Amino acid sequence: MPRRRNYFIKRAFQARLIINAYVFALIVLFLSAVLIYFFGGRSVSANFYQAILEIKNTRALILPSLVISVILAAVIGIILISIKFLFISHQIAGPLYRLEKVIREITAGNLLIHTKLRKKDEMKELADDVNAMVALYREKLGSVKMSLELLEQELGREGTPDMGVVVSRLNEIKREIEYFKL
Description:
Blueprint: H1 11-50, H2 58-107, H3 124-156, H4 163-178
Helix pairs in contact: 1-2, 2-3, 3-4
């Protein structure tokens, strides 16, 4: 199988996903900075008053505040990212689930079905294509059904059926069926 060369298939969706990841990374970085500032300022000021009695190196002074800040920022960031990506995955999984149900209905012979996705859902183009396909199949099979009904009427008439009408109806049916590659 040839390797994929175009990695940007759905550019708008992929761009939104990447931008969301960057925004959340920036939020986590900002949160880390705020937490370091908050914990670091308290720790430095508390240790400043004790500096008369004890002198610490910078690592020992800042490390506890830094560790607490980074851990808190990571936990909060993971929670925020999980929530955001839960919503993003819902915008993908929901339409997939609906499209699977629609395709099962089509497979069962229901050509009256129509799928509609929510405003922010992904895969609207796919849903539109499925709806167009179902409409086309409905039109083609409706035409075949009508031609068959007219053919039955012609054959059910009293007397000898008009062979020109019969051949014409059969040609209509053949033309509609030849649309499909079987």
